[in-house]
Design a protein that fits this description.
alpha/beta, ten-stranded mixed beta sheet, two-stranded antiparallel sheet, 32% helix, globular
Length: 384
């Protein structure tokens, strides 16, 4: 494979992937959780800390998290990054690591994250900053921003609350096949609709979990990947787009930056949405998969609600979406983007157990940050 649209398509690969502490992880600090996931991912790849010369992380409550985790692991990396693009940061890191590997700046990139907001609540949780233009309306941050997008989509396209509920129910059905998922009890459309309203039209069951979890992946160049312990997962494309910071500045409440990053990543990979077997899309709220499935090209704009009806994205449906149970039923420890990548790797390797797809050749992992503000898309393939 070669450079497509400025990206080294297929010339780098994910060779290690792991999770740690999903659900509740009391007595373990966030940095220790990230470190433990990192060690598991390196072992998965057959590599060690001595191989790592680039570290990418997003510490949830530590502005100098890149240096903190480097020190904790005893690393002196050539490249370190701890960006602030929210849950999309980890897909951005795949793009950056691929470019750094291709340029020869680094040889082995470690992307890691750990957070324990459920067992160790921080002094301030989530996006506490509010615009003076939005604060008078007393929004519940960030839920009200997503509720605004959902309301607009319903107004323009006739999307229903029942269609939003389909997303939550599908996620739960996948979670029931995943022993690692934090919540696995049955869930119905009616239970989603009748749950406590948080920010109209989103109920408590339309919202992601708030639990602990850590994850990590390891990337190297393709020539080295074949010597690692597990099947390498080539990175075919990766793109990023930022459209705004606050929801009041979003150009169109129903069109996200995925409409930019998705086509770019697919063009780099030389594929289309129709070729994708697995869509791992950020599901902090039930509206987000609907928006992203539209913007990534799986269905036309406005058709997302109808696209997910009748179990279409649940096990046995037309498109496998969030097969680990997603942020709605598996794990969402503040930022979920790295877990998207881990699940995609497991499916492409054929290691997903009872939820394993019969066909898993191509996957997309799409991360979201802020209030539909930062969107990043990664296309992965089943390696040789």
């Amino acid at each position: 494979m070669s450079m497509r649209h400025g990206f080294p398509s297929g010339r780098t690969a994910i060779v290690g992937a792991a999770t740690f502490g999903i659900g509740r992880c009391p007595g373990v600090s966030a940095v220790d959780m990230a470190a433990r996931a990192a060690m598991l991912a390196l072992a998965d790849a057959g590599l060690s800390l001595a191989d790592v010369d680039a570290l990418y992380t997003s510490a949830p409550y530590e502005a100098l998290g890149g240096m903190e985790l480097s020190e904790y692991l005893g690393l002196a990396p050539k490249v370190v990054d701890c960006n602030r693009t929210g849950g999309s940061a980890f897909e951005v890191y795949v793009q950056q690591a691929a470019l750094a590997l291709e340029a020869g700046l680094i040889d082995c990139a470690l992307i890691a994250y750990g957070s324990n907001p459920a067992s160790n609540p921080p002094p301030g949780v989530g996006m506490t900053r509010q615009s003076p233009w939005e604060a008078p309306y007393r929004p519940v941050a960030p839920i009200s921003s997503y509720a605004l997008a959902a309301s607009r989509h319903m107004h323009l396209y006739g999307t229903t609350r029942a269609q939003l509920a389909e997303v939550a129910v599908a996620a739960r059905r996948w979670a029931q096949l995943n022993p690692e998922a934090a919540v696995r009890d049955p869930l119905t459309i009616d239970e989603v609709l009748s749950a406590r309203m948080i920010s109209d039209p989103l109920t408590a069951r339309d919202c992601c979990l708030f639990n602990d979890g850590a994850a990590a992946v390891v990337m190297v160049r393709a020539d080295r990947a074949k010597d690692c312990a597990r099947r390498p997962i080539p990175v075919l494309g990766a793109a990023h787009a930022v459209t705004h910071r606050e929801i009041s500045s979003m150009p169109d409440l129903t069109v996200t930056g995925a409409a930019i990053s998705g086509p770019q990543a697919f063009a780099q990979a030389g594929v289309t949405a129709a070729d994708i077997d697995l869509a791992m899309v950020y599901d902090a709220f039930t509206i987000t998969p609907i928006l992203f499935l539209e913007d990534l090209g799986f269905c036309p704009k406005g058709e997302g609600g109808r696209f997910v009806e009748n179990g279409a994205i649940a096990p046995g449906g037309r498109l496998a979406v969030n097969t680990n149970g997603g942020g709605l039923s598996c794990v969402h420890p503040g930022m979920y983007g790295l877990f998207l990548l881990v699940e995609a790797v497991r499916q492409l390797r054929g290691e997903a157990g009872d939820r394993q797809l019969q066909r898993a050749e191509l996957a997309v992992a799409h991360g979201n940050g802020g209030v539909l503000s930062s969107e990043a898309t990664v296309v992965l393939a089943r390696g040789a």
